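Structure tokens please, single chain.
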Amino acid sequence: MVNEIPLVEILLASYNGAQKLEEQINSLLDQTYSNWKLLIRDDGSDDVTKKIINGFISSYPERVFNPQDTLGRLGPSGNFSALLSRSCAEYVMFCDQDDVWLPDKIQKTYELIQEYEKKYGKDTPILIHTDLQVVDSSLNSIADSFWAYQNIHPQGRESLNRLLPQNVVSGCTVMINASLRELALPIPRNAIMHDWWLALVAAAFGKIGHADEAMILYRQHVNNEVGARNWHHIPSRIKLAADKKRAKESLSNTYMQTEAFLDRFADKLSPRQCQMVECYANFPQQIKIFRLYNLLKYNYFKAGFWRTLGMFAHV
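Here you go.
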């Protein structure tokens, strides 16, 4: 008897996504991997998003589910966190409401996570992520590789020290195993985004793997919560570098997230890890010269020379 392939739960956080949601869900229905379920939590939409969701639930009652709760409006990270707390499958993926998945996205990501579990064991927390193809609102290609477009290839940037100041994991490409879910929950309020938190936990206590292949059409439009910026467009880079207020606020959020991480896992981190995480969390209390020294000591570097230079300027 052939063993049934494991269940993959896909978590979709929706909010006023009526314009593109149907196209996204249809791309899930076209997946080559057969054993999956879709859990959707709407965050209080006031368009026809709920009507679209209910239509799919009626048409695919064995596939599409809408877990109910009384949590109210949570925002993108909170919405995904609530969904993750309701999941129970062996593997979990995260889905944005306005992208399009290529047909073999689940299958290829599953095959890669299987390789990691075979090598490191199923009890090891594992996160797998992939590249994305950047497209416009009509799915016309902008860039074949999101990583190249943003100059943010994750190779060498998936370690804990590098993930503290900058996330290189796109949640809509991620698959995690049950071991990572159990260790990461609950995701705290000070987590900047659910994918960043999961990446930190996997880097500290498990493994992160990635595939260079783009397995998703990552749609860009004015409503993107987290969008793609062309890092090779010099005027845009200068504009970002000149926004000191934004840069300092961004760094401040990473310090708060790191403090939450330390509060949760101080007793599980190795002495070296604990020292490194505590040092970054305490940056606001350090004088400038010590912050610069510790940046070099622990290699809290961002992707690329210019991002790292900007970090040196604003810490």
